[in-house]
Amino acid sequence: MSGRAQLIVADPVKGDHSIARIDKATMAYVDVKPGDEIDILGEILSGAQVRAKVNRGLIKDEGKGIIRIARDKMEEGNFKVGMKVVVYKSWIETLKLALSLKTSHKREWIEIETPELVTETTTVLTEVSKKSEKDIR
């Protein structure tokens, strides 16, 4: 089961694009691994929010309770350095997994024979053709 972590936004790493860096302990607590998506939400009335892919935090950041969000994602989500945020595993990832067509078992088609449908038109035509046969005799 995944949890939510409260972190502080730190300066982004130069060259990062569309990712957020968190330490190993936070990744374990939130139940994500590098490449998974997380949702990042700002304080209650800030309106700041964004979804980003997770990457490993810097060694110097271990245990400090910080997150480094790439500059493009900071601008997209309206985040500022020093801001308190809540991080949790993206629900969209869970939904993708649940809807995934990749299954461990092979799907098989079962053919079902359906009965021939008789419509009213067919019945009427049959009766008319029977009457016509009687007239001809």
Could you explain how this protein is built, in words?
The protein is 29% helix and 25% strand. With 137 residues, the protein is α/β, with parallel strands linked by helices. The chain has a domain at 4-93: Barwin-like endoglucanases. Strands 1-5-2-4-3-6 form a 6-stranded mixed beta barrel. The radius of gyration is 31 Å and the shape is elongated. The model has no long low-confidence stretch (mean pLDDT 81).
Descriptors:
6 strands; 6-stranded mixed beta barrel; Barwin-like endoglucanases; alpha/beta; single chain; 137 residues
Summarize it.
Helix content is about 30%, strand content about 25%. It is of the alpha/beta class and about 140 residues long.
How is the topology of this model organized?
Elements: E1 4-10, E2 19-22, H1 24-30, E3 37-41, E4 49-56, E5 66-69, H2 71-77, E6 84-89, H3 91-99, H4 120-136
Parallel strand pairs: 1-5, 2-4
Antiparallel strand pairs: 1-6, 2-5, 3-4, 3-6
- Write the CATH fold name of the domain at 4-93: Barwin-like endoglucanases
Distance between the termini: 83 Å
Tell me the structural class. Answer: alpha/beta
- State the total count of DSSP E strands: 6
Number of helices: 4
Helix content: 25-40%
Radius of gyration: 31 Å
Shape: elongated
Based on the coordinates given, report the CATH architecture of the domain at 4-93: Beta Barrel
